[in-house]
Fold these 2 entries.
Entry 1:
Amino acid sequence: MAIHLDSESLLTLQAAARWLPGRPHISTLHRWRMRGVRGVKLETCLIGGTRYTSKEALQDFVDAIDVHESPIIASQTCVPLNKVDGNVRKRVCSSPHAKSVLDAAGI
C-alpha cells in the first residue's frame, strides 16, 4: 500500500520519531523502512530529497507487527537458530525434555 499525498498527513522521519512514544532514534525508522520488523516494512516516500512517512503508515506498520506477534513457546518444536537469542532457544528446546524427565520421576 502506497502513501497517498492527498489523504494522509506526511511527517519527515525525524518528526515521526518525535511523534512516536519513546522517541526512537531516526536510524530506527530508517531500519524499519529498509529491513523491516518481522517481515513488515514501514512505508515511506521520497520527495525532493527528503524521506517522508505518515501517521497512517506508522499505524499500519504497528498493526501489522501486532498481527505477526506470537509467543515463541507456542509450539513444542525448537525455534530456528536465527530467530531468537541463545537463552530463549535453550529454554524452548529443553522444555519438552524437562517435562518428560519430570513425568518419568513422577513429579
Entry 2:
Amino acid sequence: MNNETIYHLLGKISIAFASLEHGMVYLLEYLLTKEECSLVAVYILHGMSISKLIEKVRLIAKIRLLEHKAVFAKLEEILDNIDEFREQRNLFIHGNWHFNEEPADNADSVTVVNYKPKLDKKSGKWECLKYEHLTKTELNQLFQDVATVLSDFRKIDTKIRHVKFT
C-alpha cells in the first residue's frame, strides 16, 4: 500500500469523523435551544471533546425526547456506535504513523503508535505504547463503518428536528 493510498484513506476517515463531531455539536445546540445557528454552538460547544458531546447529547435528548421513546432509542444506538469509534478516532488523530520509507505498493499495512499511557484493567499495569497494524482492507472497512454511522446520525438528526419536544 503506497503512501498516497494511505493518506487518501486516512483523509476520508478523518473527514467522516469530523462530520460526526460537527453534527453532534449542532444537534446538541438544537436540543438545548430549539434553534439553529444560535451562538451556543460557536461560543460554548465547539472544542468540546467527543466523549463529552456524546454524554451531553444523550443527557439532553433523554429529557427533550421523553415523549418520543423510539427516536431516543435510535439516537442512543447511534451514540453507542460513535462511542465505539472514539478510541480508534483518537488513535488516528493523535497517533504516530509509521510509513514505509520506500514507496512499495506491496507493503500490506501501515502502523500507528499511541504513546498515551493507559491502565490495563485486567492486569492492573500501565501500557505506554499501543501498536496497531492496519491494512488497506481494514482502513476501507473502518471508513465504511464510520460513513454508515454518519449516515444514520444524519437521518436521526433530521427526524429529531421534525418532532415536537419539551
